[in-house]
Amino acid sequence: MAKVQNPTTTTLGYALFATRWLQAPLYFGLVAAQGVYVYKFFKELWTLILMCVGGHATETYVMLAVLKLVDVVMIANLLIMVIVGGYETFVSRIGLQGHRDQPEWLSHVNSNVLKVKLATAIVGISSVHLLQMFVDVHHTSRHALLWGTVIHMAFIASAAILAYMSGPMVAHTDRGHADHAPAAPAQAPGHGSRQQAAPESDRPPAVVVPPRPDPDADIEARIRAAGFPARKVLEDFDQQHPRGFDRETLARLGKADFVGARRNVVFVGPPGTGKTHLAVALGVRACQAGHRVLFATAAEWAARLSDARAAGRLDAELTALDDHPLLIVDEVGYTPFDAATAGLFFQLVAHRYERASLILTSDRPLGRWDEVFGPSAPAMTDRLAHHAEIVRLDGDSYRTRRATSAWAD
Fold first, then answer.
1. How many CB atoms lie within 10 A of CB 186?
2. Which of 146, 203, 340, 372 lies at a 20 to 30 A Cα distance from 48?
3. What are residue 244's DSSP bridge partners?
């Protein structure tokens, strides 16, 4: 039988849990403290500039002033970790999913990780203070230098011990709890046994530990289900081939954050410049990030949507495609479509607008898509480009270049 919870106990627990919001003003107070450090930073910087312009700044003074600035920045970094990490861990989740600037450590932050990061930050700040003593050694007493070194080594030792205790030991304990479930002691058979086996209905249910899912197997399953024509990765793309190419945008897209942000990507360029390679590679990255992906050429998507319309289930098909956060439409523009098929593509783009992501590859810019989709093109490209990265690739065909090179050899 399921255990019935006491409503009074449940209410009390929720009330105690709600007291975590009492910490929220503390973090906003730290935000104000960070503003104080911003003021201190620019005050120190202005003083340094005036001393340098006036010719009164010695090399030692400049070095000490720069170290002070570094010290202020490192303390501000420490405040950021405490504000963001502490609020996320102890008060409430911060909804940053899909934000391009989300720090990597925030996705797996917990109290142990936060303590280790704080300890390492304190070690860094202590290092700067000790370096200031060494730079200004002529004005630092031996007593202060000795104790500064001892305190710094104590910080290092404390951080190392904390990292060891919060890392492998905790992970080992968690694995031990998961892998070794409690089991009832077995009764040894023998003649002198007076105890009889308990009836089946009285025996406690066996504890079954489900097998741990294999993340790599899940990724492979998503990649196989995507229907890619071949597996491509960004690392294999020849970035020196296209004459015009935005490498920074591609590196940002490679994080697959655009899928969570429900943004689109359009690769435009002549045949053979690597559009399909990049589309597939981003699709693989999305699969690795946990998203379901579906790949097909524009002609294949047209056939699929036409079949759904003929069967009277076009709306159901578009809704079913919502299970895939990313759809890839390859080779847009290679085959013009009739008005009815162009209308199907418009419905696909309009249905996924601000709801899910699309990657499209085309041999012509969006302004010429009326040659492919006719009167539906302006409304479709308006929705498509509203939240999109347009990546232009200029250059000769990679396949033709390799064939020409092989013929020349």
1. 6
2. 146
3. 394
With contact defined as beta carbons under 8 Å apart, do 334 and 360 qualify? no
Q: Which amino acid is at 142?
A: R
Per DSSP, 396 falls in state: -
Who's near 226: CB < 8 A, 6+ residues apart?
283, 287, 292, 293, 294, 295, 328
Rounded distance, CA 357 to CA 264, Å? 5
243 pLDDT more than 70: no
What distance in Å separates the CA atoms of residue 133 and residue 148, rounded to the nearest whole number?
A: 8
Where do the H-state alpha helices sit in 22-141? 24-53, 59-80, 86-90, 111-135
Q: What are the φ and ψ backbone dihedral angles of 389, each rounded to 5 degrees?
A: -105, 120
List the structure tokens of 342: 């162009």
Residue with tokens 């449940």: 10
Cα distance between residue 400 and residue 398, in whole Å: 6
Give the largest Cα separation in the chain, rounded. 102
**Which residues, in sequence order, are CB contacts of 80 under 8 Å at separation 6+?**
34
pLDDT digits (tens, 9 = 90+) for 245-270: 778 888 899 999 999 999 999 999 98
Element (H, E) at 15: helix 7-18
Chain-centroid distance of CA 135 in Å reads 41
Q: Measuring CA to CA, how many Å separate 303 from each of 307, 309, 320, 322, 337?
A: 6, 10, 16, 18, 11
pTM > 0.70: yes or no: no
For the four alpha carbons of 38, 39, 40 and 46, in that order, the dihedral sign comes to positive
**Model pLDDT for residues 17-46, shown as the tens digit of each residue:** 888 888 889 988 989 999 998 999 999 999
Instruction: Give tens-digit pLDDT for 33-82.
Output: 999 989 999 999 999 999 999 888 888 888 888 888 888 888 888 888 78
Please give the pLDDT value at position 127: 82
